[in-house]
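Question (not urgent): is this output format expected?
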Amino acid sequence: MILQALTLTLKLAVTVSVILLVAGVPLACWLAFSPRRWKFFVEALVSLPIVLPPTVLGFYLLVALGPLSPIGRWYQTLSGHALAFTFGGLVIGSVLYSLPFAVQPMATSFAAVDGRLLQASALLGASRWRTFWRILLPLGLPGVLTGFVLSFAHTLGEFGVVLMIGGNIPGATRTISILIFDQVEALDYAAANRTALLLLVLCFALLTALYASRRRAVWALWSWK
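Got this back:
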């Protein structure tokens, strides 16, 4: 049972972090360099999941993805089954809930890149795409890595959103955090302790690897300078 929940949780975390990596990098670039006056509205929208209770976000996602909503009806017409209480629903909810944990470190890292380097690249005739790949992305890589790992680790420990949007279906939507909740409800504290300890060690290992890699990256940049 633990292996099944852990496998599902890791699958969800990998899927969510990859989606946020692909979608988060361009969004972070836009937030870092866009001169739009209404950019603060997008920044507030991206940061909203940090302060919003997971049950509120989960409730509105459940309503939006349910069979009575336009999105839910459209998906059910295409696939033949509802989107809520499925792995796909978990992915959508987790992507939205972990969005700020991916985008904010990336945007901060991109904004910290010396603008003179970007201007020099443009003066030398490099396209924006080439400047991004040769200058902006390498220098902003620590932030990109941080966003990827934080979104992965955050998805591992999600509870409120995944419970609201996915329920508690073994092998389909029961993640390891929901399994711990079930074990505590059943008064099986020994099993809950083993499962919680596994999740604790996994998250600690991820964060340790993240900070170690960031330190090496900073040391490499300092040595290069």
